[in-house]
Amino acid sequence: MKLASFGTRSDEVQFLNEWAARTGNEIEQFTETLNEDTIDNVSDGVVGITGFQTVPYSAELFKKMAARGIKFLSIRNVGLDNIDLQGAQAAGVRVSNVPAYSPSAIAEFAVTMVMHLARNLGQVEQHLANNDYNGAMHYMGREIGQSTVGVVGTGRIGRAAIQIFRGFGAKVIAYDPYPVKNSDIDYVTVDELLAQSDIIDLHVPGLPENTHMIDAAAFDKMKDGVIIVNTARGNLIDTKALLAALRSGKVAGAGIDTFEYEEQDLLNLEKEGSFNDPIWDEMLKMPNVVLSPHIAYFTATAVRNMVEFSLANLTSFINDGTAKNEVAYK
Predict the structure, then answer these.
(1) How far, in Å, CA of 256 to CA of 109, rounded?
(2) Which of 34, 86, 108, 148 is the least crowded, having the fewest Cβ atoms under 10 Å away?
(3) One of 233, 272, 282, 304 is an active-site residue; which one?
(4) What sections of the protein cross the membrane (predicted)?
(5) Is 247 a catalytic residue?
(6) Is 270 a known active-site residue?
(7) What pLDDT sits at residue 106?
(8) CA 179/CA 269 separation, integer angstroms
């Protein structure tokens, strides 16, 4: 069968080629993201598409896919907030995702950010870059094992993070509207988690109801000097409220792998070739903020799994009429 891959990254090419050679299928590969214009680049005979992007999949795109006889989209990541699922349903296009390609990759990255912030390494690096060796010596850190860590969201990634934090000896509390049954996780309310945690680690989906779950009111409920990390979805934190909390010292450090305005900034990057965001730029200058470009997932294990699982979903759609990770329309 003939398939197409959009948003193809250089690190994915090897795994895509290996899969095609092993299975005898053909994959057209495009570095461009999939949209209502780039869909025209697909050759006749393509029956399914795998994609990886954080910019929108629009209703118009799905109409064009259906007109080309392409009824299956298998994304190589988890998040669905950028997909017009109603538009897909209306066009008769079925969608699948990869809900778990490597929970450990994201959990380990979140903990890495926490360790960097807890030991004030940004401030140390800033002094050393300014040839101020003496100044770099005066930032007393904190130990994770002596901290209370609040994990918001106890899915696969959240549970992996809990295990790592417990390995340091930390007291871990958690909040999830759907607690894991018969687990040893210490669940508390949101307000209790905000009030008790020295470190807050977010691992919930970017559903509309979760937008700005960490806002100015939430920051007011937190301990002074809290550390907060977001490797989940950009809409979870009100970034302007975070900036105010950082400026006041309420928040001692923030690790942001998923930026609130990422989608629009990436669209601008595609169209204009530049990434210009004054809020990003301000945060980038803060030594107590760690910014990264949505790479918490990015390990060899995760990339291989994203490719393999996505293509397995796609071929299952085509051959069997069903896919293990098909997204249910609501």
Answers:
(1) 11
(2) 86
(3) 233
(4) none
(5) no
(6) no
(7) 95
(8) 39
